[in-house]
Amino acid sequence: MQEKYQLTYLxxxxxxSVVEHISDTVGVMYLGSxxxxxxxxxxxxxPLHPYTKALFSAIPVPxxxxxxxxxxxxxxxxxPANPPKGCKFHTRCANCMERCKHETPVQRExxxxxxxxxxxxxxxxxxxxxxx
Length: 132
Ligand code: SF4
Fold this sequence. Notes:
The chain has helices at residues 2-5, 16-22, 40-45, 50-57, and strands at residues 25-30, 33-39, 107-111, 114-117. The chain is of the alpha+beta class. It has one domain (2-121): 3-Layer(aba) Sandwich (Rossmann fold). The chain is globular and about 50 Å long. Residues 49-50, 87, 89-90, 93, 95-97, 100, 105, 118-120 line the site of iron/sulfur cluster.
């Protein structure tokens, strides 16, 4: 149908295994804000944002011999009507730095077409560049 009618679909889901199979591009949102965006292949090969990494760690692997390293997020989801200052994810992020609580991160292109909104990638965090 997409090819026949030249359609664009917006598919919203928490089931990343389905997202991977039907999407050309992926946008990951937290509390109503885009935190990572890029080609599906790039996002799944190289997830950058701590929230994306936590989501990906929850994807079940259909192999009982594979040990899962699940990232469990602490705390509860803040109210979208009253989001935290600075980075909206800072109250649950294991990588949170002091400035994450006050400074809102901006979107950066880390590899062609692959964008992330996180201080870890601005040259002042611990991860400067994860280009592969
Ligand atoms: S900006 Fe800071 S709190 Fe927000 S996701 Fe990045 S490291 Fe975590």
